[in-house]
Amino acid sequence: MDPLIAKAMLRPYNLAHDEIVSLLALEDTAELFSAAYELKCRQVGKVVALRGLIELGNHCAKNCYYCGIRRGNPNVRRYRLSEDDALRMARWSFEQGYGSVVLQSGEIESDENTEYIGRIVKRIHDFGGDDFGITLCLGEQTEEVYRFWREAGAHRYLLRIESSVPELYAKLHPADHSYARRVECLRALKRLGYQTGSGVMCGLPGQTLDDLANDIEFYHDMDLDMIGMGPYLPHKDTPLGSDIEITPEYAANQLKLGLKMIAVTRLYLHDVNIAATTVLQALDDRGREQGLLAGANVMMPNVTDTEYRENYQLYENKPCLEENSTKCRNCLNWRVLAIGEKINWGQRGDSPHCKTFPDSNKGKKS
Ligand code: SAM
Ligand code: SF4
Fold first, then answer.
1. Residue 341 C-alpha to ligand 2 middle, in angstroms?
2. How far apart are CA 305 and CA 324, in angstroms?
3. Measured between alpha carbons, how far is 64 from 59 in angstroms, rounded to an integer?
4. Which residue has the least CA distance to atom 1 on ligand 1?
5. Does the Cβ of 107 fall within 6 Å of ligand 1?
6. Rounded to the nearest whole angstrom, what is the distance from the C-alpha of residue 190 to the centroid of ligand 1?
7. What separation in Å is there between the alpha carbon of 169 and the centre of ligand 1?
8. Domain layout of the chain by residue ranges
């Protein structure tokens, strides 16, 4: 076995910065992926945890240069789900045995939005109880807002740092988007006892392997529980993506880099939850399965009604635009079984890293 891979498998955080870069630079990835998969199996077994992804709305106050639903894109038809519709999708996920939901939207900071989210979270918690996970992915907010939603029943929060390198972050966002605030938000989430997730996009224009190694070290420095990352995919209506052509070669390179990031993150951190994100499937029909076989253990199938999906396109080629949630569920089940894994139906699937959280195991069924 490659000595660096063997070293990484011995214990977490057992690689120097340059060693992380060397693993990310590997061309032949077979051994890297199988070692990361073995570590994942040691941590959680041959099981995949599901989160039903509800895309609550696409209004956004921000203008990130890479994102298709940025405020400045006039070609998006804006929507927000009614509370009852959001509840119906969450209840469907619960009844289908998805152990948790993720509520995601553009970033809105307003009292009205805070109350709207708070009511939805509370109503989901009322029927799902502590057995049913509620993850939020709603951008930067004040600590008071995060506390309000935590008290309403949310217990996980995803906030990607996008890039842990401040200079690169500054190139991806307008000047009024603050890297420092994003880090401070992650700290606030940890203080409030959320299981906290973050992540980056990889394969961004101008990004180096050194930057990506920095990202993996950032995950450790921030003591994160969950990692949700994926390849960057251009969107034609954005400043960053308008000139990039998605050729088959570009897609293959982005996919390979995304899989390597999953594998090296697993080898470095060992015990976190890592998502095989939908963007992998946008690059290759079997992209998410490849993510699972490279060390990921979570999938986030879209449970939003089909009619809304085309208006929530962060990047080109978003998969499953036409498919309804029932079809997605069946398709996913077969895909997972086909690689020798199984879904842990009905369980929250908490990150092994957060076992020490006071309430993280509350209500867990096994
Ligand atoms: N608005 C919230 C936020 O930014 O944290 C949550 C929703 S946002 C759409 C979720 C994630 O989508 C972002 O963190 C970003 O990494 C990802 N994303 C946006 N545009 C993307 C693109 N072109 N390619 C890949 N991922 C993208
Ligand atoms: Fe808004 Fe999030 Fe997209 Fe940035 S990434 S424009 S905050 S939805």
1. 33
2. 7
3. 13
4. 106
5. yes
6. 21
7. 13
8. 3-343
Q: How confident is the model at residue 365 (pLDDT cuts 50, 70, 90)?
A: very low
What is the 163 CA–ligand 2 centroid distance (Å)?
Answer: 14
User: Which residue has a Cα nearest atom 11 of ligand 1?
Assistant: 160
* Greatest Cα pair distance in the chain: 56
Predicted pLDDT of residue 288: 96
pLDDT tens track for 292-346: 999 999 999 999 998 888 889 898 877 777 777 787 888 889 999 999 999 999 9
How far is it, in rounded angstroms, from Cα 363 to Cα 258? Answer: 33
CA angle, corner 37, sides to 33 and 40, nearest 5? 140
The β-bridge partners of 157 are: 136, 196
The residue nearest atom 3 of ligand 1, judged by CA position, is: 139
Looking at the CA of residue 60, tell me the nearest atom of ligand 2: 1
Query: Does residue 150's CB lie within 6 angstroms of at least one atom of ligand 2?
Result: no
Architecture, CATH, for domain 3-343: Alpha-Beta Barrel (3.20)
Q: Output the CA 283–ligand 2 centroid distance in Å.
A: 21
pLDDT at 78: 96
Does residue 364 carry a pLDDT above 50? no
- Confirm whether pTM is higher than 0.70: yes
Q: Is 219 in the pocket of ligand 1 (CB under 6 A)?
A: no
What is the tens place of the pLDDT at every residue in 228-242? 999 999 999 999 999
Give per-residue pLDDT as tens, 112-155. Answer: 999 999 999 999 999 999 999 999 999 999 999 999 999 999 99
Q: Is 62 in the pocket of ligand 2 (CB under 6 A)?
A: yes
Whether 181 contacts 140, CB under 8 Å:
yes
Q: Is the dihedral of CA 157, 349, 13, 277 positive or negative?
A: negative
Task: Return the structure tokens found at 51.
Answer: 């989160």
d(CA 263, CA 35): 8
> Token pair for residue 342?
């199984």
Render 6-17 in DSSP notation, one character per residue: HHHHHSTT---H
